[in-house]
Amino acid sequence: MLFVITGNGKGKTTSSLGMVVRAMGQGIKCSVLQFIKADPHVLGEYRTLSSIGVDWESWGLGFMWKQKDPGPTADLCAQGWDSFVKKAESGDYGLIVLDEFTYVLNYGMLDSGMVLEYLSTHIGKPGFPHVVITGREAPKALVDLADTVSRIEDVKHHFRSNGGKTVRGIEF
Fold it and tell me: Is 168 an annotated catalytic residue?
């Protein structure tokens, strides 16, 4: 199945990682491919999940609004997509998360048509893993293709009252 977790609220990645924990508890091999973000080694979730056997790869150089030239991140995202295809077609994984992947589509770092065509022709085939895609503003075509879509709403966020400071154990 294809799952999309989108919206402006906090918790999209956290929700997808909850699915990973559930799957791992059932003996299902999982992988997380995180796009855009850089250096997962500072993340508590990376440390914990990699210690229990979750394959984790990062394919980015940080938030796009902080980059003068998006070209290097686009190149990394293309490499990340290639890694996903290899993993997905290997038959070794039962669940793969493409974290922050909506940004890759929305910024045109990969051809959306190609991605959607690939997913539509592979999701549901025997041996192909469940795929979870996270990120804000999921494209309509991706939402239409998905089996399950969750939209996380931003009702109230502590960033507005604490000056946008990240909190250890909450954001990383």
Answer: no
